[in-house]
Every structure is written in structure tokens, then in C-alpha cells.
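Consider the following input, taken from an annotated entry for Pumilio homolog 11-like (Cicer arietinum).
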Amino acid sequence: MNNFCSSDVVDPLMEEHEHSPPLQPVQDKTVIHQQLYSSHVQDVRTLNAPRMEDNNTLSNNYNDKSSNGLLNYSEMNMMRIKAAIEANVHKMHFHHIYNYMNNRPSLLKRGLVPVMAMDELGCRYLQAKIDEGNFLDVEIIVSEVKDRLHQLITHPFGNYLILKIFQAKDIVTMDQINSLSFMLISNDQKLLDVCIHDHGTRVMQNILENIENTFTLYEVTRAVGRIIVALMKNINGSYVVLQCLKLFPPEFKDIILDEVVRNCVNVARDKVGCSVIQKFLRHVVGNAITLLIVEIISKAMVLAEDSYGNYVVQYVIKMMWPRANQMIIEVLRGKFVRLSLNKHASNVVEDLLRYCEYNDAAVIVEEIMRSRDFLTVLKDPFGNYVAQRALQCTKGRLCRELCHLIISKNRKLRNHLYGKRVLAMATACLKVQ
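Applying the prediction step yields:
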């Protein structure tokens, strides 16, 4: 039989119950019991925790230090509470535990913070402790979440505690913010996992808003640069990159943009990445955007034929950047027939005909007209749209010459599914010339 059942041991919880206020009448003649904490407070010893008869060591310690029996008993109560939490007991048990904690703030020192943060009630309790502004409580919370920072950021409840820590600038010190920031970027893979997570991306964007130390910001920028490709190929990750460009000073933006330019083709050929590159082109200004456009133009052939990369080239064409379209035509010259027959690249050729200067458009039209595969273009499922766009974008001598060339192939086009469309447009254009 355990010594804890001895009659000379003082049980603080039982003592509280013994001294509870008596029953008192109320106006409606019903009777209530005024309890100290809650109407459902449960003796913590009944929680699903290790039984005392299984812990001979603790029992022996108690016998050896009988003069401090109450202190040892309290210590063992704390161990029971921690074990109950980590065993994921029923929510009602958690409710009782937090009622108990509200009257015993020293529980913050018992190593429960990360586990509490991953419970809804526990997370609220910890946030309230931060709002109270007690330096020691805040120090305990920050020090204990540090080693499990990445896990908490991506947790449905834990992420709110991390947000609270970074937002509480009047309570949390700059050194504590910097310490957590360096822990966050200490592992590239864990940082990436945070940034692409549904909860993590929101927290990360908020963290970027609250980092004020220049050196810390520089190190965060470098860390983001190391995982830039993976971030830009993920929707959540791309928001983190765009947040960097929105908030960072120019010298730090350039670090990220240099990585974007270096990996432009890789990113632009990705389903998500092609959209992110277009956002960059829309929001970035200065020398960085020039470098990005030049890189896209130099890789225009590869991108034009790609199922996603072609959208990036089209976007640059529609931007009407000075000399950009002329440079694209120079890069693609000699390959316009091939591009016209490609499902994706034919859209690029059409946009060039539509948005570039007339003399530049004439270069494309004449190259296709002079090709021995001209008829193939007219009859192609994609090439016929290029031919129709050419008829719309040309005028004068070049338009008449193109119309006559198409009509001369009347016999091969009039009964063809795609060719007859081009033939009909050429006939109509010739009448208005």
C-alpha cells in the first residue's frame, strides 16, 4: 500500500473541498454550491495519468524526504498533469486542467508550453499570458516554443501563439524576435515546409512584417533566396516571395530578384511558376525587371513551345516594353513556321503579329509566305489561326500579296476543315483592298 494514503499527509485539493463555502439559498428558492474555481472542477489525481503504485522511485523519494512531503506531492501532481495532456485525454479533462492552471501560473515552468499550444484552450491560455505582459511568463513561453517552432507554425492552434509572439512588440523583446527568426531559417527544408503550408504561409508573411533588425532581415532574405525555386512553384510559397518584394528594402529585393532571374526558365515552365513570374513582371520596377525581361527574351524559343512558358512570353509581348517585341522576333527569326504549327507557340506568333510594329509584323508574315510549308500552315489546326491573324494585321501591298497566294491554293483549301476558313477570310480581305 502506498504511503500517500497515510492520514498525516496533507492533500491541498481535498483541503480546499473540505473548506468550501456552505450551501446558500437564492431568491428562487433553489440551492447552489459556491465553488472556488468551477462547477465542474475535477481532482487532477483522477486524470488518465501514471498510477502512483507504478512509480516506486517517487514513492521512495517521498519517504526519504518526509519533511518536504507537500512539495514532493505537488511535484508529482505536476507530472500527472503533464502525462495526462501528452496522452491526449478527453477535452473535458483539458477544461479541468486549465481551470486548475488559471489559479497556478507556475505551471508554465513545467515544460508544458508546446503541448498546451497545440490545444485550443491551452493556446488561448498562453496568448492571455503574453497579453498580461509578465516578463518571466513571456520568457518561459518563448524559450519553450523555440525548439518546436516549425511544428507549431503549421499547427491549427499553435500557429496563433507564434503570431501572437511576433505581433506583441511591446512585450516580446527584439532579442527574442531575432532568436526565433534565426531558429526559423536554421533549416532550409523546414523553412520551405512552413512557407508552403496553409497555416505556415500566413504566419511567415506576418513574421516578415515584424522583423526590424537589419541583419536578421538580411539572413532571412538569403534563406528565402536558397529555396526560391520551390517557393515560386507553390501557391502558398509564392505569397511569401511576393511579401518579401513588397516589404524589403531595395538592396534585399535585389538578392531575391537575382535568384528569380537565374532560375527564370525553370520557374516559368511550371504551372504555378508561370503565374508567379507574371506577377513579378506586374509589380517589380527598376533595373530588376529589365534583367528579368531580357532573360525571358533570350529563352523565348524554349518558353514559347512550353505549355506554361508560352504565357510568360505572351505577357512580355503585351507589356509593349521598348524594343522587347523586336528583340523577341530576332530571337525567333527562321522558326516562325515551326512555331505556327505548335499548339502553344502559335499563340505567341499571333500576339507578335497583333502587338508589334507593322514593319516587325511584316518580317513574320513574309517568312511564313516564303516557306515551302506555307500550305501546311494554312491547313494546320493551329497554323490556320496564325494565317488569319496575318490577314488581319497586314495592309497594302503585303496584304494583297498574301491574299493572292492563299487564293491560288483554292483547290486544296476549299474542302479542308481549317483551310476553307483561311480561304474565306482571304477572299473577303481582297475585296476591301
